[in-house]
């Protein structure tokens, strides 16, 4: 079932969630049967849609959150729609590529499989990916994991665990394609890292349930570990992918 934890923090989600490497979209276009139409399912604020539009004639980007869609960058070849992942509104057999960026764990299952098979052209491709843990410095990483694994841990639910486990247990009954590895690196200062951690679904639930921002509980330690807060560091992401065809 598709969840909508992120609409209340749509502006922060658009600002602080990382972008995906262009090499990923070049590769996906290279294995698609054509480059006419890509469906970016659960687009959020359009991080993947904007990468796809440089490689496909048209992108339809759907999400159940109007607030998130309002934050997505506009482009004359991206059509943003409010639509459930299980009922895209797309015609049968019209899509070359389906992408689901950091979201398929919320609604994977037989119903989504049926929708993917309905809209894809013969030989069409579906690609789902997520990013799990970041790597910055050992001490910063320890504090990020402290927040993730200890402070907000009770607020992670089953779908989040699929991300933690590298998408190994994602329901993905398609003919597998083994992708090459992709390097995903962001540049962040401390405010950007903390802003990102505030967009975790577990952080939003912690804040709602307890009236306390969980990131504040590690801020002083992070400040000491980071150094000057406006200094920019490379953030390396663990990008996990499942790609298949029908």
Write the layout of secondary structure elements.
Layout (H helix, E strand, L loop, with lengths): L9 H7 L5 H10 L5 E5 L7 H4 L5 E6 L2 H6 L6 E5 L12 E7 L8 H10 E16 L2 H14 L6 H7 L10 E3 L6 E5 L1 H9 L2 H10 L5 H11 L6 E13 L1
Parallel strand pairs: 1-2, 1-4, 2-3, 4-5
Antiparallel strand pairs: 5-8, 6-8, 7-8
Helix pairs in contact: 1-8, 6-10
Quick tags:
246 residues; alpha/beta; Rossmann fold; eight-stranded mixed β-sheet; 10 helices; 8 strands; 36% helix
What this model shows, in words?
The chain has 246 residues and is α/β, with parallel strands linked by helices. It has a single domain (7-245), classed as Vaccinia Virus protein VP39 (Rossmann fold, 3-Layer(aba) Sandwich), CATH 3.40.50. The protein is 36% helix and 24% strand. It has 10 helices and 8 strands. It has helices at 10-16, 22-31, 49-52, 66-71, 110-119, 138-151, 158-164, 190-198, 201-210, 216-226, and strands spanning 37-41, 58-63, 78-82, 95-101, 120-135, 175-177, 184-188, 233-245. Strands 1, 2, 3, 4, 5, 6, 7 and 8 form an 8-stranded mixed sheet that branches. β4 (95-101), α5 (110-119) and β5 (120-135) form a beta-alpha-beta unit.
């Amino acid at each position: 079932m598709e969840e909508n934890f992120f609409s209340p923090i749509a502006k922060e989600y658009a600002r602080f969630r990382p972008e995906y490497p262009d090499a990923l979209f070049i590769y996906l276009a290279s294995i698609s049967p054509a480059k006419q139409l890509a469906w970016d399912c659960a687009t959020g604020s359009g991080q993947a849609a904007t990468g796809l539009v440089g490689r496909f004639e048209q992108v339809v980007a759907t999400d159940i959150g109007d607030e998130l869609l309002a934050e997505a960058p506009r482009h004359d070849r991206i059509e943003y729609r409010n639509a459930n992942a299980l009922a895209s509104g797309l015609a049968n057999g019209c899509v070359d590529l389906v992408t689901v960026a950091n979201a398929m764990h919320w609604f994977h299952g037989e119903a989504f499989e049926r929708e993917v098979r309905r809209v894809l052209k013969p030989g069409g491709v579906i690609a789902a990916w997520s990013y799990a843990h970041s790597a910055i410095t050992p001490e910063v990483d320890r504090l990020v994991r402290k927040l993730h694994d200890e402070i907000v841990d009770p607020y992670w639910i089953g779908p989040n665990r699929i991300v933690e486990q590298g998408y190994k247990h994602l329901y993905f009954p398609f003919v597998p394609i083994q992708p090459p590895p992709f390097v995903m690196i962001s540049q962040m200062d401390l405010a950007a890292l903390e802003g990102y951690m505030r967009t975790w679904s577990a952080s939003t639930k912690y804040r709602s349930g307890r009236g306390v921002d969980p990131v504040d509980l590690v801020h002083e330690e992070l400040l000491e570990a980071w150094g000057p807060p406006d200094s920019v560091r490379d953030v390396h992401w663990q990008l996990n992918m499942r790609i298949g065809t029908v």
